[in-house]
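A reminder before we start the practical. When you read a complex entry, don't treat the lines as separate problems. The point of joint prediction is that each chain is placed relative to the others, so the output describes one connected object in space. Small molecules and nucleic acid strands, if listed, are placed in the same frame. In the example below there are four entries. Take a minute to note the order of the lines before looking further.
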Amino acid sequence: MIITLNSTANPSEVKRALIDHGLWVEELVGQGRVQFRVESHSAQVPIEVVQALPGVELVTVRASTHPRVDQQAKVVEVGAHKIGVGQPTAYFAGPCSVESEDHVRRLAAKLRGYGVKFLRGGAFKPRTSPYAFQGHGEPALKWMKKAAAENGMALVTELMGSEERDLVAEFADLIQIGSRNMHNYALLKHVAGAKKPIFLKRGMAATVEEWMGAGEYLLLHGAPAVVFCERGIRSFDPSTRNLLDLSAVAILAGLGQPVVVDPSHAAGRRDLVGPLARAAVAVGAHGVMIETHDAPGHALSDGPQAVLPEQLEQILKGLDALSAGSKA
Amino acid sequence: MIITLNSTANPSEVKRALIDHGLWVEELVGQGRVQFRVESHSAQVPIEVVQALPGVELVTVRASTHPRVDQQAKVVEVGAHKIGVGQPTAYFAGPCSVESEDHVRRLAAKLRGYGVKFLRGGAFKPRTSPYAFQGHGEPALKWMKKAAAENGMALVTELMGSEERDLVAEFADLIQIGSRNMHNYALLKHVAGAKKPIFLKRGMAATVEEWMGAGEYLLLHGAPAVVFCERGIRSFDPSTRNLLDLSAVAILAGLGQPVVVDPSHAAGRRDLVGPLARAAVAVGAHGVMIETHDAPGHALSDGPQAVLPEQLEQILKGLDALSAGSKA
Amino acid sequence: MIITLNSTANPSEVKRALIDHGLWVEELVGQGRVQFRVESHSAQVPIEVVQALPGVELVTVRASTHPRVDQQAKVVEVGAHKIGVGQPTAYFAGPCSVESEDHVRRLAAKLRGYGVKFLRGGAFKPRTSPYAFQGHGEPALKWMKKAAAENGMALVTELMGSEERDLVAEFADLIQIGSRNMHNYALLKHVAGAKKPIFLKRGMAATVEEWMGAGEYLLLHGAPAVVFCERGIRSFDPSTRNLLDLSAVAILAGLGQPVVVDPSHAAGRRDLVGPLARAAVAVGAHGVMIETHDAPGHALSDGPQAVLPEQLEQILKGLDALSAGSKA
Amino acid sequence: MIITLNSTANPSEVKRALIDHGLWVEELVGQGRVQFRVESHSAQVPIEVVQALPGVELVTVRASTHPRVDQQAKVVEVGAHKIGVGQPTAYFAGPCSVESEDHVRRLAAKLRGYGVKFLRGGAFKPRTSPYAFQGHGEPALKWMKKAAAENGMALVTELMGSEERDLVAEFADLIQIGSRNMHNYALLKHVAGAKKPIFLKRGMAATVEEWMGAGEYLLLHGAPAVVFCERGIRSFDPSTRNLLDLSAVAILAGLGQPVVVDPSHAAGRRDLVGPLARAAVAVGAHGVMIETHDAPGHALSDGPQAVLPEQLEQILKGLDALSAGSKA
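Here is the predicted structure of the whole assembly.
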């Protein structure tokens, strides 16, 4: 935001008023009218409010690069369930990779009992090594769909390439774009054509603006809605797998955008999943996604970060209490 | 952690058992016994537990670089107040820079009414520009001490150089080392000699291990206790002033270390202070520090991120409810 | 690397010998034999050398996650030209986006005169905003191919989605995978099937290991060769567009991998292109890629970072002199 | 930079002209005159040039936060030697920690033979662990001074606390402020009072602007000159100890600021010291600082990254040839 003062303004007074509104301002150097530059890490203040301050002549701002995202509905419907402002916290759970029909059906039945409404599981897996297990593909989709349907759950699963779109769209209620593909614009355009709501994970080095820009690709090319999912960004500290950025979640929630947190991938550490899930709900996330497995040692991927079903039950009970307390 | 198997072990079975405990393991290549390397972003598992697994011959680990920190008490006493495991959330509030005796006394009286037990304020300010206001120095210490004493509060204030130690130690109950000085080992050693508890902010690019190592300098050289304070680290995203790392808070709290969160400096955005304070309490922080000013436009530094006293009151009421809910 | 000593070893002596070889070592804590852990930022020393040191019983290392990359040829043939160890520095130049047949043909003729052997230009453009120009597509490929053929140049161009593979493979001599797609494993597998050498840009938050792992996907699935291209990674400093990492280039060149540097995208600043190109050649890069345009103000993308043809001529003359001097 | 157009301007034409000058511009949204914002990663263009473009009414810029640095001399005199624009590359070498009088005298004699004019060595060492060797202190200063004097060299050594100022200033020709103290403003002010030129290492998470701001503290408080030294910043990739940022060096050199590169601490890898030193010279650095030890295994700190004297000799011969070639 750039603020140009009129010729009779008292710059110090205007500056104080801007700071009172939570704006970091810097006076620019030059001839002519006094101009202030507002820094990007300022509180969000409507342009009309600034324009109306005594002494202000002109206010200009950067145009939004994601107008459709700015205007999307605050609540997303996924099958029979809803995610977003004013809705109960949406719980997503399930294994990283789906292993067998029997396995996912038994697990889903347990999860339903804990209040999980969204079954997550991988059929196509993005793996850093080409030699790692890449997912069971189509059969896994069928197994999951059956498990979800039996338990009244919506199904969320990731798609990695354009060629998988129609297949995944046939089974998934919410199509996940993983963090490694957030910048994959060809995929975003293509997937949007499936006309399904999208679960868009943040890229590991994406700014909030770039993340919303990826959402714009989806909405512009036909997706009905985007749910944003924070799963940790890259950092210099090896004590967690990624660095969970809850400020970004607070920003999106503050804008009314549907936003979910995945503490499992963020931390990579089972012992931090509970505390980070609590923080996510407290900061305003509309949902949490938690990897769950009844025998992590046998999981086909990411076993160390999966919690046991009984651990999940305790975590979700705590989240329920937290939500109740915070509304009291 | 490096795990060497015995000659009769079944490596796959041992690996599954390790994953069941939340450890990310990688088999190393070489002759002789099978060895597994455990990654740093694994859950914390006691060495005895791993040693006792069938098939395990030898377990070695990196020695702690901060043995005194590892063994410090889980509760720190600061004047009449306590911070740490099992204590009520400690609320720290006050202005970035102290402005006048009258001002800080009036503000402190209000803060006491909201349940704030720790008065914070700056007498010596680290500023990126040498031309910025550098603090009122000794008079500010006296003003704050008076305000704190009148209201039964403990005083926390920052010290920037060795030469200020005795002066600050005379007035402060808890001495703050700012993030820019976390790596200033000469200062750490010197300040420790004041025998006062230290409030140690995390360096803006410090790992959790380095932060705890700075704490070790303090305890080794005479400080009775260290309270850690997370205030955001450096990141590539300009949408917040710094990036609040609540995973680090969860790690420290999980180790029983006293840890506080400063959402004001982390976000730099007044509109995010409330949500991030909530997340801090939910993740397990033992306290929150919130910059507060009754006329931010007149603040001598960091006005845009300060909340008004009445905003603080609402935030703290919400934190009380959250704590109550989470214990229900 | 983990080093286990034998029962008669003198740990201090072994440690000194390891340091003499450039290894950062840490003694691990545990019962049984003494073990040293070697840090990842150590000099590369063959396992046999360490194994042969007096007192060493066992040496284990992490298995390479990219064995095919490790063994690929040190020189890549692209049409009539070569890139790699012992070859003259390969010069890549051309516009960010191709604009018209006439334009690219005139430009190519100039570039040939300066010693440029690789024509680069975009037909399909990855853009952060869905509203930005996305490239002229197939016609642009034809224009570029004609321009390259007329001037005896090889053509390098980027492909964004699997559906473009056959089209791009028909025209390009070297297929570029952009930084936003380095982690797009579905695309890597598919493109590899075109059996053309690949120009693989580093992801903006990818480690060197992950970058080589992406190369492994390509070689495993059929690509004959991979040329790595460093184009800057994400950083906290807004003074350049990205942060050029020449250490990574030194590492790859030291391993005999063909590696090229793109200073234009790294810096985003025309005034830094020359100095950074010089540094790239000095550190051991086998080529440099420089965006060039005769009227940057009319460029369809990235004009501000493009150099003029006459500026390119000066830069390349300087690189020739530098290469000559460094071999003198 | 903010550019306001006059009422008759053609915005598209002005934008093209700005891009032609290497500026990244964005049109701001608002009522009244058209305004362009120029991004920070643009080429440096004098304000007068922009002001003179047809259609431009007003140009404002951020005020420099380091006016004294902007105006300091382009060449710094240190004893009998000079560093800066137009001078031969300054070679700095010596051990990380000084060990004995005899040792440093023997080493210095060798280094002189290779063309090293600046002897570096540590008497006071900043160590991450309080249990690591902290330097020999005052005796080490005397040993180094003697060694430097015998060989006609200038002495560079680090100071960690205010209390060491007078002692270090008595012996050092150039006083080093280490990267961990770049933000230690109390120390900067105090050390400046010694009236000696300062060798200012970049903080591990400091922007170029903040680094220059630290230089401003020094010049404002009495230091006669500042030599900047890049030694790597923090990154997510563990393959080097730090990430050498040669773009920052190009920026400072382009501004005429004296700037030196320390590839030893940046990489931490002996095998990369030579290539990175070459890149430093090629990008425009006025000097390089290389840790050198005749028996790295016996070094009291940082042995793995030290090169042997005979390796240094080869590296410096290569740098001489590179400089000659690049001027040819």
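Discuss with your neighbour: The mean pLDDT of chain C is 95. What might explain this?
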